[in-house]
Amino acid sequence: MKPAVSLDGVSLCYRLAKARPPSLKEYALHWVRRQLVYEKLWALRDVTLAIAPGESVGIVGRNGAGKSTLLKVVSGVLKATRGRVAAAGRIAPILELGTGFDPELTGIENIRLSALFLGHTHREIDRAMDAIVEFSGLGGFVRAQARNYSSGMLARLGFAIVTAWKPDILIVDEALAVGDAAFLEKCDQRLLEFRRAGTTLLLVSHQRELVVQNCGRCLWIENGRLAADGPTAEVLSRYADEGRSVPIEPASPPAP
User: Fold this and answer.
1) Total count of domains within the chain
2) Would 201 be classed as within a structural domain?
3) 2: alpha, beta or left, given left = phi > 0 and alpha = psi -120 to 50?
4) Domain of residue 220, CATH code
5) Distance, CA of 30 to CA of 167 (rounded, Å)
6) Distance between CA 161 and CA 132 in Å, rounded?
């Protein structure tokens, strides 16, 4: 069976400027004189894995370990520096809070804009609009500008938009961490429906219960590398025992 998601030797490097010229003119002069110096930071290093269609996979690790970078590479938001990435089917990503939202547009306008970016037609959006608004629980606030929304409201609206249609691959990056109990219950039910319908799930979360409830397999990412891959209970236990004692490594390139 062809994997829903596969990564083969994937590494990603950020180039960080050591000096920041105060103006565009200074930047141009530094560039002409070849005085711009960059530091390489390897956020992912030689990650190889395969996820089967319909599989639910949790991803754990400390802040800055590379979890979100991994999801962005799978989603196509970032391009790997090395290695190959393949994903089969329609991907629905829920990444950073407010990603894709225009703060000057209303909730209704952002629903239309975000859904269009996800590849849905105006007719599909019109049919799903009432259900999206109802699921988000924003009520009259859906007609207010998004800049007035709290982080919880942004998370609810983003989740409602992305999950209004069944995706082949659903990617969730800590988007549920700011929801209230009632909304989390609704999200759990929708995730269950998707899993039963065969959607592949990639879930990053620091909430152990959420990972245990939704994922039979778990990945532990540490210093950009895949530190463990296996049954959720085993990986979470190992992460709890060893994760805090793992030192943060300096930036270095992956193996050639």
Assistant:
1) 1
2) yes
3) beta
4) 3.40.50.300
5) 46
6) 6
The boundaries of the domain holding residue 211 are 5-90+167-245
Residues 89-100, mean pLDDT to the nearest whole number: 79
DSSP state, residue 161: H
* Amino acid at the residue 185: E
Average pLDDT over residues 188-197: 90
- What is the C-alpha to C-alpha distance for residues 173 and 177, in angstroms, rounded to an integer? 9
DSSP for 184-248? HHHHHHHHHHHHHTT-EEEEE-S-HHHHHHH-SEEEEEETTEEEEEEEHHHHHHHHHHHGGGPPP
How many C-beta atoms surround the C-beta of residue 129 within 10 A?
Answer: 16
Q: Which of 202, 149, 154, 200 is nearest to 177 (CA)?
A: 154
Closest alpha carbon to 118 in 76, 58, 70, 180: 76
**153, HSE (Cβ side, Cα atoms, 13 Å):** 20
- In a 10 Å sphere around its CB, with 0-12 CB exposed, 13-18 middle and 19+ buried, how is residue 110 labelled? buried
Q: Look at 55-69, 90-104, 213-227 and tell me which has the smallest mean pLDDT.
A: 90-104
Question: Is residue 135 assigned to a domain?
Answer: no
This prediction has a pTM of 0.82
| Distance from C-alpha of 78 to C-alpha of 60, rounded to nearest angstrom | 20
Going by their DSSP bridges, the two strands 82-87 and 5-17 should be labelled as antiparallel
Q: How far is CA 45 from each of CA 42, 148, 159, 227, rounded to the nearest angstrom?
A: 7, 39, 30, 11
